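Checklist before submission:
- one chain only
- standard amino acids only
- sequence pasted in full

Submission:
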Amino acid sequence: MIPDTFRKFFFPSITKRYLVRLILVALGSYFLFGYLLIPLSIQGKSMEPSYHDGSFTFCWRLRYAFSSPVRFDVVTVRFSGTKVMLLKRVVGLQGETIEFRKGRLYVNGSMVEEPYVRYQSDWVLEPRKVSPGHVYVVGDNRGTSMDRHQFGEVNLNRIAGGVL
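Returned file contents:
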């Protein structure tokens, strides 16, 4: 025989109060996970070792509601609505000059230490100035060739939020 507390928890009486609570929880969950905390399934290795292929995280949409991303923030970039988003790290801000020499990141001519990059590369990218209203993003996994990565300038309007 099932104890009464378990029965009430797993098989509650369907009352008007129960239905109202159920609807409120469903609507709250829909709003929370549909618009504020968007679940992300990470597919690909461009952000390894920080974020692994097949792992799971959330995009916090309000992260940049009152501020702009800063260097080294991990952001979600809208690629196709909120169904397809890219996870990238901000390495350059508007007005800065970005370049890669022998796999090392240089901002305004000075080398920047990137402790999150574990796999060094031989990337070479000519200096380029980040346009106003944009940031420069790139993945953490630099051990693969540049042609296998999606990176570059991103309009601030395309940044959906930050990663939790």
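Reviewer check: The longest strand covers residues 84-92.
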